[in-house]
Structure prediction request, 354 residues.
Amino acid sequence: MASGDYYKVLGVQKGASKDEVKKAFRKLAGQYHPDKKTGDEAKFKEISEAYAVLGDDKRRAEYDAYGQSFAGSGGFQGFNWGDFQSGNGAGFEFDINDIFGGFGDVFTGRGQRERRGNDISIDITLSFKESVFGLERKVLLRKNNVCSVCSGTGAESNTEFISCSVCDGNGRVREVRQSIMGSFQTVKACDACGGKGKVPKEQCKDCKGQGAKRSESEITISIPAGIQDGEVIRLTAQGEAIKDGRPGDLYVKIHVDHDKNITREGVNLVTTLPVKLTDALLGAEYTVNTLDGEVTINVPAGIKHGEVLRIKDKGVPKAMSQRGDFMVKVQLITPNRLSRKAKKLVEELRSEGI
Prediction:
């Protein structure tokens, strides 16, 4: 049984008309059918169960009367998934073409799904500085690449092409598919010829007619400035190659090492600067290590603990060749022990109200 309220499962109000219920089911079925990329068999089964009840007047009336208590009440006889799969549910009728009318070429055969190779993913670790400024990183991957001998055709040089024996030159084959809605026919591109209707008389000896061969290839990855830990870069058509189709994509997940002195806050970089108490009182110059190198800053007299000094344009690069700032948080350092002379001087300061 579907979890929760059948009306909520379909996203309709309790007083919804039969047409509204049907429309809601068709929309959800188109989204979650297992044969689609967005498919979810468990979710599809749930919405189908809800429609089997709410789409039938008698079952809906029983459901409205007994609600979720039907399981042991004897009033509502429950849902028989086997009946629904075969389309023989008592009092419940459906038209498979009507339900999947919105699916388009995937189910009607008016077109065909694009063949594409598998996507692949890799992980790359960057230093903190590399993540801030960006870089180009070359990686060596072993994957299916387009055959360099036949350029992906799968054919020997100058060989003729003959009609595909699997699809009789049509480029498509009919296939009976079993689903939780029962069995129905689909038309898809012929795997043997890739939908072309013709195959080479002599296959490429290097890739054995596959059009792709496992080999190493060097890929250059442009990593943008300011990328953050956990972000993913997608390189279109840099995945696995496939005959008579486009390659899959390459996904690069970024991992960024921490810097022991510098952190990031948006487009700004932040560090902590230990400042001696006397320097805070009288002012002084300090050297700060930024990602661009050492920068000398002026610590003004009377600065307080936690105050922030700003070094402009030394942060993370952003649009229009601009950059964030480098923020320096002041941390006052107080001595753990004072000499006799230092203690006397501090007592004199205290007597002055400082």
